[in-house]
Amino acid sequence: MKEKKSKRRRIREWGIIPGMLPTGELNSITDVKGVEVGHSTIIKGEGELIPGEGPIRTGVTAIWPHRENIYKNPVAASLYVINGYGKAAGVTQIQEFGRLESPILLTGTLNVGRVMDALIDYILRDNPEIGISSSSFNPVVLECNDGYLNDLQGRHVKSQHVHRALITASADKVAEGEIGAGTGMVSFGFKGGIGSASRKLSWANEEYCLGALVLSNFGRREELRIAGIPLYNLASDIPSPKEEERKDGSVIVLLATDLPLDNFRLTRLAKRAQLGLARVGSLADNGSGEYVLAFSSTERHQRGPEGQLKIRAKKPAEGGNKKSAIKSEGELLNKMFQATVEATEEAVLNSLFMSASLRGRDGNEAQGLPAEKIASNYNQLWQS
């Protein structure tokens, strides 16, 4: 049974404002120039689990760093692992070379292989030279386990679902909650899923943006913090989750920026995402898969006709004081660190506030966050 989507609002629409920096126009990862996001959702069947048949509560989410043939125009990227209990694909090459040459696909754990296969087919259509006259292709697929609500063994994400998410991706505000890869996810004992947020920065008369998108499937209810206030201080009558909802979970954080940062600086950003997760109550449990992938949509490389990558030479600094330059970069990075922490925190909270109750296999149900009660009590505490 699913709550009507019209009842769900993002956290700011309830008058709760996480963080201090201004948001982008959409307060979404798609505020970052070039970034597009698409979803494909599969909800089918009710009742008792029949492995391989359903009920199905899963999907796939696609994130494009840009649409100008990502294989031929890779972007600078970094992958930081907070806790490595995950089955991600394509991450070691990002760690080794600091480049992303693929759209990023998010899905349920056992779908990873099938999503990879469909993604390869999609990229080969525009790049038939791959593996023949050019180098191979590194598909990137990240996952969380949606098995509490979904028929995990069924691996129900097929090529058409992957291609639909890739084709329909847009720069509109990201649809959040129980959609795409977020369909079967549970977070802090509530329905979790997709969430996004962004922050604007001004620097040297230029405007930049940092956006975050999360796939939330982690957290213990007793640890949840809503903009700094413990959940049970806001709603003491919320029952504890069932024992089967207390299992370790996972979270994927994607960070995008239009600031032209290299792999080293993106790594520094990615590390700060865990501070945003800690703000909402993450403990990075032993059995959790917590991955952060950061990329710059404007820091691009170029692949030559024979598949080799051309390295762009950096122009040396002209004149100026070296100490002043270091200080200026430090101040800019501090702003980016703050934006990362705030956007990550708000993206997780949006994933909770925008997710409606959903029943899955064997009658398992993830209740939606009681947003109206929490918001009312939060605002009363704030005003008192």
**How much β-strand is present in the residues?**
25-35%
Using the CA coordinates, give the radius of gyration.
21 Å
Shape-level CATH architecture: 4-Layer Sandwich
Chain-averaged pLDDT: 91
CATH fold node name: L-amino peptidase D-ALA esterase/amidase
Distance between the termini: 37 Å
User: Strands of the largest sheet, in order across it?
Assistant: 4-3-14-13-10-9
Principal-axis shape equals globular
- This entry's quaternary arrangement is single chain
Write a structural description:
The structure is a single chain. With 384 residues, the protein is α+β, with helices and mostly antiparallel strands. Helix content is 26%, strand content 26%. The chain has helices at 91-97, 112-126, 159-168, 231-234, 263-280, 322-353, 371-383, and strands at 36-44, 56-64, 75-84, 99-100, 104-108, 140-144, 186-187, 190-191, 194-203, 206-217, 225-226, 229-230, 250-257, 289-300, 302-303, 309-310, 358-359, 365-366. The strands form six sheets. It has a six-stranded mixed β-sheet with strand order 4-3-14-13-10-9, with helices on both faces. α2 crosses α3 and α5 (263-280) crosses α6 (322-353). The model is unreliable at 1-6 and 311-319 (pLDDT under 50).
Topology of helices and strands:
Elements: E1 36-44, E2 56-64, E3 75-84, H1 91-97, E4 99-100, E5 104-108, H2 112-126, E6 140-144, H3 159-168, E7 186-187, E8 190-191, E9 194-203, E10 206-217, E11 225-226, E12 229-230, H4 231-234, E13 250-257, H5 263-280, E14 289-300, E15 302-303, E16 309-310, H6 322-353, E17 358-359, E18 365-366, H7 371-383
Parallel strand pairs: 5-6, 13-14
Antiparallel strand pairs: 1-2, 2-5, 3-4, 3-14, 7-8, 9-10, 10-13, 11-12, 15-16, 17-18
Helix pairs in contact: 2-3, 5-6
